[in-house]
Amino acid sequence: MSLHRRTLLTRTGALGSLAAFGLPWWHPQALAQASGGKPVTGGVLNVAVAPEPTQLTSAFITTMNIGMLSSKVLEGLVSYDLNLRPVPALATSWDQAADGKTLTFKLRQGVKWHDGADFTAADVEYTLQEVWRKLHPFGRAAFANVEKVETPDKHTVVLRLSAPAPYILNYINTYGAQILPRHLYAGKDVLTNPLNNAPVGTGPFVFKEWVKGSHVRLERNPHYWGKGPDGTPQPYLDGIVFKFIPDAAARTVALEAGEIDVALGSIIPLTNLNRFKDKARYSINTDDGRYLSTIFLAQFNVRRPQLQDKRVRQAFAYAIDREALLKIVFLGYGKPATGPVPSSVVNYYSDQVRKYPLDLKRAEALLDEAGLKRGAGGKRLSVTLDFDGGSGPTASRPAEFIKQSLAKIGVEVELRAGDTATYLRRIFTDQDYDLMISSLHRLPDPTLGVQRLYWTKNIIKGSPWTNGSGYSNPELDRVMEAAADEPDPAKRKALIVQWQQIVQEDVPLLELIEQTWVTVATARFRKQQPQGDGLFASLADAWLEPKGA
Amino acid sequence: MDLGRYLRNRLLQVLPVVLGIALLNFLVLQLAPGDVVDVLAGEAGAATPEQMAALRAQFGLDQPLAAQLLAYLGRLLTLDLGWSYRQNMPVLDLILSRLPATLLLMALAMGFALVLGMLLGTLSALKPGGWFDHVVAVAVLFAYAMPTFWLGLMALVLFAGKLGWLPAGGMVTVGLQGPWWVHALDVAHHAVLPALTLSTFFLAVYARLMRSAMVETLGADFIRTARAKGASEPRVLAGHALRNAALPLVTMLGYQVASLLSGAVLVESVFSWPGLGRLAFEAILARDFNLLLGILLLSSLLVTVINILVDLATALLDPRVQLHAPHGVRA
């Protein structure tokens, strides 16, 4: 799909955040999914998710595939539109005080849990205090400034903050802050509650069964609060079956054979997508994962003497052709990254940073300056490159691309594949590596998604996905910490721009490709409202066109 | 020696073997870098060192190796397979829920391999060097040489993707209503492709074995005698030759149960078959060692028990074979 179009779309920002059909007619999504078709009631949707989740609750874990499933049963306060602006879910409105220290949420009335109990402010208060703040990997940071939660009435929640936390509004969907039923969790151990595997929620679908290794079955919630624009009760679907198909090629066949209708989260190999290009039969959606804002990166271990010199890291950055990497390895699904904040994060993205176009001469010159002259056989230095071979058979392709790129400037790369456990141990516990590659979510808010990778205080031996490069820059720390509690949007953006500039000058990480998450579906699958967090959509507004329609 | 005593002796010998295997498994798994807590924290997206330390303490991973081993063996003796930390349920429940699928797949694959292998081998042996013999030889070589998972994928693309005759994976149609035979047919429908795929390699081995055994047997004196007595050709084949020629097959079967299990890992992955093989593979990736040790223990039990059954079958097929436990006292 045309990237140019997408940038245009995100730049204009002319889409009303609540406009269900706010997409221009020429936008591919408008054609694919927000068609003028009237929703059809009935039918069971078959969805493929891989790998099989380990539980069905996202309230204290950020694993994507758990979120893709639990979001149909359990809900959050908001969801996000294509520009990552909040849209009402269980909260109907929200208000931030001028000093940024009070957040007020008005909750939807008349909502019931699947067991018939009323949904109230007490549920939100309980989950925030006992689950998100204590157990959720990002929630701990997101809600750290919450001093007090007040519930003046059954449908109002007020957060009193010790310091402004503007990022909270960017992390309260069903993936970031999923609301659990207080009456079924309070007083019990949250982590071992059997309901984590058989959730009771407020969402459009009710959990029915989980046959491990095979499928999860959900049925329509007849008492759901949602209504379509014309007043028809939602959800339109009778049910959803999630099928667990471990083999990627088998998923492709299942989609062609019509045994699954939707494949979520880029689980159809990019190399197979050409089989689903026929718009009359299939739709390919590349917006569902905007909320995650994932960047594929190569990270230096700056503890290594030879990689401490930023000129060496800059040389590597000039030697890797992002455009070619995008075309050859990612087959065009994504765009070249310019810094740590992806362009999908419209509010904070800036391209006013140091750029690294392909420039081998400059790369060589920088290495010469850094004292790494070409030696015998033209070699300057040897480095290892670690990657997680457990993430599929194609995991080695970007690694091979980088190896070939760096060979041109006299850097020899030795590839080391390990499975996930081996890889994590090597990078974060043993810290015994030179370069590694990975894809990491940056989320709609840099304070939550990006700071963790660059912050000195997040260099934590033994914990995965922390600041594993070992990069420490007091000036950057100051800027990031200031941005975290700056209530004024303009000032906050200025700080985050400065942050992007510092990082792109020092390049402890090479931010390479803004990845798109690809959803492939049968053309019969329709949805009224495109979402930036579509991977975690409740699917209340989704339907299946009858066969032969 | 009477059968009851024979079985008792054999089963008593199984115990030390299985325990030895369990010990070996435990020690080998310690060599893998990283542990289940690394994986859990990696999946969660973040975790504090305190949380990770607490988890390791909870799972007993902070104990010295000797203590962990003793605890594991102690649990084994009380038949407690422990808890799967990643799947959040008792290992025994997990295994029991997945075992029927794998046993069904293995039994069907073995059945296909035996029946088809014997048939093809026998028909080839009737006219060694004939056209049929040549065709089977090429087909067998192909089936033997091709990676099982690739054959499976190609079959999937053809029969599920292009033709739409068979389902593309799974074991049942979700939400199917009807009497028991509807469900049985549904499972059979789903099982055809994976079972045939898993059987190809073994089928090839058996067809070759059967052919050579048959060629040899058909030239034997007792066959000539039978024919001279005027026995009909089918009777000669089925009654005399087959019984003798099948002996090496049965012996082979005992050896191959273990490789059948490892083949199941790939086939279950390709066909989304909810069995133990796939579970074992995922347990390795997740360093879920309680679960993996449980599956390995069960597999070793399965293999040893099937080998006992094979010995019994050999004795039934060949009256010359005496049942006696190895190193046992002859009755």
From TrEMBL, chain A:
It comes from the Bacteria. Residues 86-443 form the Solute-binding protein family domain. Keywords: Signal. Coiled coil: none annotated. Signal peptide: none annotated. Belongs to the bacterial solute-binding protein 5 family. This is ABC transporter substrate-binding protein. It comes from Aquincola tertiaricarbonis. The lineage of its organism: Bacteria, Pseudomonadati, Pseudomonadota, Betaproteobacteria, Burkholderiales.
Automatic annotation (TrEMBL), chain B:
It is found in: Cell membrane. Gene3D superfamilies: MetI-like. Keywords: Cell membrane, Membrane, Transmembrane, Transmembrane helix, Transport. Pfam families: BPD_transp_1 (PF00528), BPD_transp_1_N (PF19300). Residues 99-314 form the ABC transmembrane type-1 domain. The keyword Zinc-finger does not apply. InterPro entries: BPD_transp_1_N, MetI-like, MetI-like_sf. The chain crosses the membrane at residues 12-32, 99-123, 135-160, 180-206, 245-271, 291-310. It is a multi-pass membrane protein. PROSITE patterns: ABC_TM1. Belongs to the binding-protein-dependent transport system permease family. This is ABC transporter permease. It comes from Aquincola tertiaricarbonis.
